[in-house]
Structures are given as C-alpha cells and as structure tokens.
Amino acid sequence: MLKDITLGQFFPGKTPAHRLDPRTKIVLTFVYIIALFFVHSFTGYAFVAVTLLAAMRVSRVKPRAMINGLRPLVLLIAITAFINAFFTAGDDVIFRIGFLRMTWDGLRRAAFMLLRVVFLVCGSFLLTYTTAPLAITDGLERLLSPLEKLRFPAHDLAMIMSIALRFIPTLIGEADKIVSAQRARGASFDTGSIVQRAKALLPLLIPLFVSALTRATELATAMECRCYNGGDGRTRLHELHFTRLDAAAALLGTVFVAVIAVMSRLRWLV
Amino acid sequence: MSAILAAENLCHVYGAGTPLETAAIQDVNIEIEKGELLGVIGHTGSGKSTFIQHLNALLCPSSGRVLLGGEDINASKEAARRARFRVGLVFQYPEYQLFEETSRRDIAFGPRNMGLDGDEVERRVLRAADFAGVDGSLLEHSPLELSGGQKRRVAIAGVIAMEPEVLILDEPTAGLDPAGRESLLKNILRYRDETGAAVVLVSHSMDDVARVADRLAVFRSGRIAMTGTPGEIFRRQGELEDMGLDVPAAAKIAAKLRARGVAVPEGIYTLEGLRAAICAIKEGRPC
Fold first, then answer.
1. pLDDT 10s digits, B61-79
2. What is the residue range of B264's domain?
3. Probe site for chain A from B99, B106, B166 (most A CB atoms < 10 A)
4. A contact set with B (CB within 8 A)
5. Which of A100, B102, B134, B248 could form a disulfide with B210 if both were Cys (CB 3.0 to 4.6 A apart)?
6. Whole-structure pTM over 0.80, yes or no?
7. Structure ipTM
8. DSSP character for B222?
9. Which residues of B253-269 are buried (b: 16+ CB within 10 A; e: fewer)?
10. Domain spans of chain A?
11. Residue range B124-149: average pLDDT?
C-alpha cells in the first residue's frame, strides 16, 4: 500500500527535454510559473496550452501520465473553483441557492483560477518528469551558489535535499516491514474509530523514527569517515554544461515571455 | 492426523497482470506436525520469506490454501486475525518492531491485542520473557536502551507471549555472537519442548538447522525442492551445492575423511556425531 506513493515521478528518456541542463529547466519552469500570473485572457491561456502541449510532445510525456499527476489535486482545484464561483462580488447574478449566488464575474474568475492551477501543476510536472531528482538538486545548488557569498548555505541545502530524496524509498520499505511485524502481533491499522486508528499508528511511527534517527547518525559518521566537511573545495564527478540546446530553449522561453507580456497589454482580448 | 498447519498447492504471484509478473512461490505443499521443528533452507530469493508470510495470513495466496487445524486461515478477515495469534511470526532482525516505553509493555502488545485480561497478560509476559531468555530486571527498561542481543530476545518474547501453537522464526540468530546463537537456539527448543508447539526455523546457517531441526524443507526458485530429515538432506551434498547451498561443517569434514579412506559412516552432520564417529574408529568404542 505504501509503495504506491509517488513524488514527482521521473521518467528516464533521451528527448531534448531530458538532455537540457537542469538549470535551464528550473529557470524556465520558474519563468513559466511567473508568466502564468500575467495571463488575464482566455486567448492567453489558449497560448499557454499550446506551449504546454508542444513541450509535452518534445519531452514525450503522455497526457495520461499528466492526468494521473493532477489526480491528487482534484479536490484542491474543485474547492478553489467553487469558492471563486460563489463568493465573488458582482451584480450580474446567474442564480442563487440560499446565500450562495453565482455571478458571471465569479464564473469567469473560477475558470481562470482553475486554468491557472492546472497549468501551474502541469508545468512543474514537466520538470520532474524529465529531470532526475538528483539533477534537480544539482541544478538548484549551482543556481543558488552565487548566494554563498552572502553566507547562504546552497551546498548544504542541496545535500540535505538529495539525502532526503535518497531515503524516501528506504523509509517506505522500512515502514512496510514494521507494518507487517506489528500486524503479526495482532495490530490492525484499518479498523476502528479515527482515534483508535491514530493510536494504532504509534507502533508504526515510533520504530520508524527510531530507525530514521539511527540511519541519520550512521550516515553522518560514514560521511565524516570519508572526510566530508561541507562543500568547500569539492569538485564534481558530473559537471553541468550549457549546450546549444539550452540556448535554443532560453530563446523559446524569451519568446514565450514576450508573447505573454504583449497579450497582457491588450485589454480587448477575451 | 496431527498436522497443525498445512499448505496446499500454495502459489503467490507478485505484480499479476504487469510485465513484471513473477511467481514468488509455486505449488508449495507441506504439512507441519505438532511439536516438530521444521528447518527451512534455501538460497536468497528462493521464496522462503514469502512462504512464511502466508502461514499467518500476512500474505494472501494467489491460489492454494493454508489450513490451520483444518480451517482455511484466509476464509475471512476474522479467521486471518485469529490465525495471527495462533501462528507467531518473528521476522528477520525483529528489533525494529520495538516501540513501547518498557520491555514489559512491548512484550504485552500481542497479548493485549488478543483482548486478554490484565492478569493473564502479566502471566504471559513473564513466561515469554523466561522462554526467550529476557532477564526479569530488564522488563522495566526501555527496549531501545538494551543491547542488540537483548533487544532481539525482547522482540522474540513479544511473539512468544501470544503463546502461538506454531512459532515461525526468520533467521533468529543472524548477527548474534556464537554464545548468543547457542543460547537462543536452546531457548527455542525449550519453548517447543514445554508447550508442544511446532517451530519453523528459517536459516542460512546449515550448522544451526543441522543441530536442531527434525525435518528440513529446501526451497529452490519458489518450490520445495526436497524435504527430509537432516541426515537425508545433507547426504545430497552435490545437489545442495548446485542450489548455492552448503552442508554443515561436520558433514564436509566427514566427506573429506571418507575421501581419504577413513571409514566414517554416512549421515553425519553434527559435530557431536562426528566426534563420536571418530572416537569409535580410533579407539574402537564410542566416547
């Protein structure tokens, strides 16, 4: 049951999107997300949709995978849309049920919100689908490294992130083992009231924390034994290099931003 | 018929319907008698662990049945839960399951889940601690402060406290020092002798199973490749080696002596047996 958890699943591949430098992809994703907030028309969203579909094509992400990725967020999206639709002030009321009233303004705003969240999530999924978690942390470290001059611990942050990512499968495996062992002693995790179920989690959580802490200590010792003392003077096995592909992607990104900027000026667009 | 636990045509398939479909165990048939100590050996990945998790309904078979006292343990959720109390399963490195504030409370976890009253729980905790070799003075300590060997014993006591009719242990002596192994095996034998429970011992140590098992089941690629007494099994050294398994040190020494022309009889697989045989040859009498 716990094995079903996926966090920003990565699909290995050899598409141009996979070959892009992670730094390029991180920056482009950020730019894309910020640009989304400057879209105020359906025409604008249509343009974003076309861009997204093109990017999905290039990176060979199947629409089905994207939809699966959206599934956990359905509730959040639905609530956002509902609140926007019913609690927006306006005169042109469509209908009312009790104190709830839906206005044209609200409906428009709800549709915008929905599109924005969906596009936002899809865009960031594109990053995690095409970039291995370790490549993302590497890229982040390099992007944040100028801040080290201001004593920002970019290397340590990236190290923490990669260790955390590396331990997720380990801890899931461990949790599975503990669940089995406690079930063998008659514990049941799926019956009883909410309070009983919460209590039933203790025999799982305590050993899990104990072993996570033990592992952390052991890992720290093992790292120190190999003379790890932070990022100072460390070189890397896999250096990141920008290529022509990155230049092309940056150019496309600039065009995207320019189009969004122009569109946001054109007030007459629907 | 005195079989307490029986597996009938047991199969388990992981990832059914996907390209990764693999049969972890196939067509496993075995009966476990009351009071018997069954040793289960096999190469890593041969299906031993999957097999034992079927015996207390932690895993549900893809096909086939597990009968406990003649009843299918997967007949209902209730039956499965009851089976878990009657068939105690000690996992490999069971130390990680400890979670309570004191060893006493941890050992009591199983019996309390059974819904027993306080006095009965207390009686079982003390008895289980005794069987598992947990010193009474340790009961008030946090199980997390104990040494590795003591943690292992507390964890095993936690299963024994349910007073199972079948006790299954997966590699109980892994990682223990020789003295610890020795005394743990003796404790397990004592539990068997005093309660008449059946014991299933999964082990990689041929010397361990040679010494304590009444009968052995050898797993290969998810099937039981052979069953028989340790004497019968360890005679087939060649076949065992083909499966990536070993024979006990005593059996190897006996084979080498035989190759050098010493008339050591067949069917020797424990150091005691070997010693007696050598004495008999040297001095013409057993010693």
1. 999 999 999 899 999 988 9
2. 248-287
3. B99
4. 174, 177-178, 180-188, 202-203, 206-207, 210-211
5. B248
6. no
7. 0.86
8. T
9. ebbebeeeeeebeeebb
10. 1-131+241-270, 155-231
11. 93
